[in-house]
Amino acid sequence: MAGAAPKLRADDRADRTMSGRHDRALRAGLISVMVPLSLTLVQCGKAPDPAALAANSQANVQVVAKTNSQSSNARVASGDGFEDRFPAPQFKERFPSASESFLQRQMSDFSPKRAVQSQPEQASYKVASLEPQVPYKRPAREDLTTLVSMKSSAFPYFGNNPASDAPFLNISKGDRRGHRSYSGRVYWQDETYSDSRVLVHVPEHFDLRKPGVIVVFFHGNGATLERDVRDRQMVPKQVTDSGANAILLAPQMAVDAADSSAGKFWQPGGFKRFMAESADHLARLTGDPNSARAFANMPIVIVGYSGGFLPTAWSLEVGGISDRVRGVVLLDAVYGEMDKFASWIENHRSGFFVSAYTRHTARRDRELMSMLRQKGISVAEDMDGPLRPGSVVFVETGEGITHRDYVTRAWTRDPLKDVLVKMAATPSLALTRVASTNP
Fold it and tell me: What number is the average pLDDT over the span 345-368?
């Protein structure tokens, strides 16, 4: 046993020697790992090196520039540049699609379930508060401006032209039918005379329970409802800005064409049918189908601009409801039909008549004035006074006023607004009230 002890000590030393070498190797490995980590942790507490940031930034700029260049080249190659995605606006389509600002409405769009029971002016309801009753207030709403397709609108029209008693569509080419205008130019039915839409505008302040008026606007040549009546001539805005309790109807006449054809308004009773159909649409648009009768009896003011004189004159002559027309406004529009205008003025002394004109229509306006004076009808030649029942006013505007801008600038800016304000301020007309003066 005594001889075994040295052997054990030798083995133990060998084991300790091997263990020491293992420990040193482990410590060396740990140091090699910890030193870079410690340097990194130490760096985290210091401000970034500006030189390093500048270098990285420059590298990023180069990468971004290269990426943008490649992306730009790819867009050019694929035709997806800014000009391709956002081309310059062009008036290519005469009839707006569903994605455009106006939607074409049909009678089926207005379900009876949208009808709401009208509330009395001072009705009240109970609330959970210290106050037992709170006066009812109508919820606020915005102006309503939309397009509605109407069967009784001016077009399409397949009847005769009363000026010649010949078919209105007097030319054909294959399956296409068209109309040769007085200037000799041919307009095709499918492009120019097939739009049955009507611009309908109901101001936010309109109240059916108060005296009101329907303004029917016949636009001139070369016009569309969106581009010209709404955006350029701002007819809906003038109606709203007047503050009058008024609604606007503007049927599309010949689409963007130098043609004043009246279409269905040439027909006896055509204007009456148009107003009857409009009453049904207005009732649904304003939320109460039972109000159609009120719209069907509301007074009418017809405004004709330029080529709009023709549908205006025929609506007065054969429209079937000339007694509902309480006012006529012509904006540089007396190009003919003086006998029809003179007859309506003579036989409807409770209404008013206003004609503003430039040098283009001056001769015919003066001829109409002479016709009226021969009938003993007093004629005023300025718009300074109020509009009264029986008022007949002719206003000549100066050389600086252009025909194209006449709906927005005639004897004053926004002449349609001016007429509605003057009309609403005359109690004896009893047509409408200005919203701001109503309780």
Answer: 97
pTM of the model: 0.69
Q: 286-292: long-range contacts (C-beta < 8 A, 24 or more apart)? A: 286/144, 286/202, 286/206, 286/208, 287/114, 287/115, 287/116, 288/115, 288/116, 288/118, 288/208, 289/110, 289/112, 289/115, 290/115, 291/208
The pLDDT, as a whole number, for residue 105 is 53
Q: How far apart are CA 237 and CA 435, in angstroms?
A: 15
* 415: preceding bond cis by omega (within 30 degrees): no
- In the chain, pLDDT over 70 holds for what percent of residues? 65
- Note the pLDDT of residue 22: 52
Average pLDDT, the chain: 78
